[in-house]
Amino acid sequence: MSEAAMQNRLFIPRSCLTTEGNKTGSWRFLRPRYEDKTAPCAAGCPAGEDIPKIEMLTAQGFFKEAWETILQENPFPAVCGRVCFHPCEGSCNRGEYDDSVAVHTLERFLSDTAARYDFRPSFARLPSRKERISVVGAGPAGLAAAWFLTLLGYSCDVFEASPEAGGVLRWGIPAYRLPADALRQDLRRFEREGIRIFTRRPMDRQFFAEAAGRYQAVILACGHGRGQSLSIPGEMEVGVIEGLDFLRMIRASEMAVGGGTEAVIVNGAGCGRSMDTLGEGEAAAEGSEFPGKIGEGALSSFDGLTAVIGGGNTAVDVARSVIRLGGKAVICYRRRRQDMPAFADEVRMALEEGVALEELVSPATAGRDGEEIVLSLRQMIVAGMEGSGRARVIPDGDKMKEVRVRRVIRATGAGPEESWMLPAVEGTKVLALSHCRLVSGEGKLVVVYAGDLANATKSVAHAIASGKEAAIALNALLREGSEAVIPRLQACAVGDGPALSMEVCLGGERRLRSRHIVSYTEINTDHFGFAPRITQPRLLVEERVRSFAEIDLKISAGLAMKEAERCFNCGLCNGCDKCWLYCPDVAVIREGEARRIHYDYCKGCGICVVECPRNAMSLGEGEGEG
Amino acid sequence: MDAEITEREYMHSGHVGCPGCGATIAMRFFLKAMGEKTVLVLPACCWSIIAGSYPQSTLKIPVIHAAFETGGATASGVRAALDMLGDTETTVVTWAGDGGTFDIGFQSLSGAVERNEDFLYVCYDNEAYMNTGIQRSSSTPYGAWTTTTPGREWKKMRKKNIVEALVAHRIPYAATASIAFPEDLLRKAEKAKGIKGSRFLHIYASCPTGWRIPSEMSVKIARMAVQTNIFPLYEVEDGLRYTINHKPRGYLVREYFRHQGRFQHLTDRDLDEIQKMVNEDWELLLRKAGERV
Fold first, then answer.
1. Across residues A569-587, what is the average pLDDT?
2. Secondary element (H or E) of residue B122
3. Tens digits of per-residue pLDDT, B123-158?
4. ipTM score here?
5. Which end of chain B has fewer surrounding CB within 10 Å, N or C?
6. Domains in chain B: boundaries
7. Cβ-Cβ contacts under 8 Å, A577 against chain B
């Protein structure tokens, strides 16, 4: 090339390397990491259900997986999707944004979907162990204990006094809230998992002597089935009816005929006693059309007014059942409506259905006047507040009130059938836990008091919590000794407890979650938009009062997915990829479902942590495992 | 959720942008929309540094480093060269900071768009000369501290409305975008790519270093600028048709200022004054968009 040509050539330097040789991660002094945390709903659920995961899977259309996620912590999705008082919704972070997620309705949807497609669950289960456990009482607590002990490898036999399993779910809660078919849907799985339920097998002291040889432990979960008397003059004479017995008689009229529960119930032949209130007369009602036969005997007519004494769910259930039998009902409660232990929604629906409410009255005497009962009520006034937030009431001088009714039903609390069923209070070998009580001794049969016998709050969710706690505690006791019980329970706590996780106990992925409970201020609401909460579809009032048909109706998959999408999934990575999207250093790596930070290049700016909509990431000092 | 945003990256890790740099987020999003048939003209700006010093390059597309004032002119030349080669596929993009756009490069930008050169000019705006040490530009907002508007001498002039200046040239497309609204940003980049003639994109890119904000707040602050109407998202076609792309719920500007070190000296009265200015600008925009008579 000539010199002139060389001079006319244009030289431009051209870069040929990437910047990947610069390990800019060395600039970092704060380190982002993926860290799933605990959602307030999960910690607020007595059964410790992994709600953010359930809603995430539901929103993604993985209904079976969502349903299995419930089952991992709660063997009763069909039941709890109907009767749980859903404290989860009260602690939902979304409640501070627009309206809490309808977790309860979605649980019901998942159980409906499972029934529709006859899902067969698969879940973690430990290998079989030699120990055998007997469970007394096939109510929610006893069955839950049997379920979780089965998952832990034990073989369980459940003994139930009444002709069908379910306890309060079968014989207490009315069918319009929990149809027998829904309960059976959950019960069927117990048999499939090899849990034997012996019905018509009541318990007595003799049982313990026999059990000692065959079982290593007994779970006592026979519930509070005996109502408490009003202790007023005339109570016996006028024949005040016990609310629990009343509900039991109604439910007895829809006994299983053919198929149905036979798969579950292994009939214990030659049983001594069936249910207290199920004598020969009621036995005739088996399989009959409801409510035709209920009328035979004492409750021949529901004309006129029925007074229901009490303010709990039993009182409301009784009053609403009376309405459905064609009668009228007035609930007499000694405090105010807002003090009633019954679920607010149930009270509201009862009033819609025509139940009257008489607040601040306490029964004083009862007397008969021909066909009618004269109930005199002492008027009460509020005299301050109790620690629990309820009003403290005292008689308002001598002021009295009189109501004339056809019958009186009491629902003023219940206790155990026999006094020896009450758990031991003290002793060196008594371990009092939050939902159950363990009594053990050298070489002796371990006895665990569970359910209503040991629970302060008598709800289905608390009964399940009790069964789970009993199972985890008993497993720790049998495997590692009594010293291990408390540490084991703490290791399985959801958030700060007392809710426990069986998935954690079985070594599942949930054990990796931080205990930190995500608060509303930790949610990046920029990534959410306002969306109305689904309304639970229900029968119309006029349809409701005519029969015991279930009130809550089904919802479609489309609506369920839309509602589940409203869930913030607090503390749980749902793969939204905001971390990947906003990273200025292209240092978030996606490998299938997993996300990973490339620490060679991550400068630790922390944008990923702030932009994470659900606080599933953390920013901290130190270079520990990421 | 963001399935529509391609996984394809046109930027390498290991670039030397500050932690939390909004300008790098802007580039990452922008190139995802543009794809590999893009030539980038880089007049002096932060990105001259971020793109890598010789022999490194952090971008997977061709880049020409150009002099500060020549963003418009260099792009015109590259376009002419590509035309001579018969390459109609490649989009020529000038990627300039606010200094190179609002101040130093304004004449060549104005000249190029007046000729309606077929190129896309992107200004990523971090509201001062950041890589030279936070000197004020005509893009620096009213009220801001910079090293050349220090202490009580904080900037008392309003930010130049660059989009309106470009709209006045009646170019085919001019739009604003923000790093906090990726879907909107990508859509506008794709739209601009498909238009012939001069297009202008004004991208709001926060600067933790110059704004005195924690790096992790970078995107959040950019989002707040939109939510408070300080930086509205809109587009203008043919200098005539205005479309407002995001209608905020009306957060107060106070929220946005509170988080930034560069505004800490402002009193409540100053903030009230600024709120008035923002409201005035928003009303003006609504009128232009035909949403106010």
1. 96
2. strand B119-125
3. 999 999 999 999 999 999 999 999 999 999 999 999
4. 0.96
5. C
6. 22-288
7. 1-2
